[in-house]
Write a structure and sequence with these properties.
With about 180 residues, the protein is α+β, with helices and mostly antiparallel strands. The chain has three helices and eleven strands; from the N terminus they run E-E-E-E-E-E-E-H-E-E-E-E-H-H. Strands 4, 7, 8, 9 and 10 form a five-stranded mixed β-sheet that branches. The longest helix is centred in the middle third of the chain and has 13 residues, at about 85-100. The radius of gyration is 19 Å and the shape is elongated.
């Protein structure tokens, strides 16, 4: 068997508009052996997961209902990055909207492809160091959020113990641990 090759998109069409993402049907062609097939790709704006840390080293998280798992989830504040918006700006905006915490120095800790088999977007992890309570939270219409301020070690232990932990939230905590190991000592 030869090495994998990039399939070429011959035709694409919007299959479904689902408000927060769109599903496209792509007819693709293999450049070497000429196989063809239809594939479905979810397209959405990039996402941001903020890791807001207070001056005393505590991590700000939110607890909310997630419709996909039909369960409550503890995770970093975050959401959709607006078109053209810098992930660091989006992280600060989402943190203020969801928690009321503002300020801090924003550092991009990394970017991943959440599910490259079917999704085209990226998720960005942003550390916000030195946040403080300074705004009135303004969650989206369907968000009901509990703000948690916790020791990062406790957050990571709890995420590791939960069998249905939000995978990107878990990875975000590990990125924080790699970037700021002193918070986990």
């Amino acid at each position: 068997m030869s090495a994998p090759a990039r399939w070429l998109v011959q035709h694409e069409a919007l299959h479904a508009d689902c408000r927060v993402f769109r599903v496209y049907k792509e007819h693709c062609h293999h450049p070497l052996d000429h196989r063809e097939g239809d594939f479905f790709v979810l397209r959405a704006n990039d996402w941001v997961l903020a890791l807001p840390v207070t001056a005393d080293g505590r991590l700000v998280l939110v607890r909310q209902h997630r419709f996909g798992t039909r369960a409550l989830s503890v995770e970093p504040p975050g959401g959709v990055i607006e078109a053209g918006e810098d992930p660091r700006v989006a992280a600060a905006r989402e943190t203020a909207e969801e928690t009321g915490y503002v300020g801090g120095r924003a550092t991009l800790l990394g970017t991943v492809a959440p599910n490259p088999a079917i999704q085209s977007n990226r998720a960005h992890f942003v550390l916000l160091e030195g946040v403080h309570l300074g705004a009135t939270p303004a969650p989206d219409a369907h968000e009901e959020l509990e703000v948690l301020v916790t020791d990062p070690r406790d957050a990571l232990r709890a995420a590791a113990a939960e069998p249905a932990t939000h995978a990107l939230a878990f990875l975000a905590l590990h990125r924080l641990q790699a970037a700021r190991p002193e918070l986990f000592a």
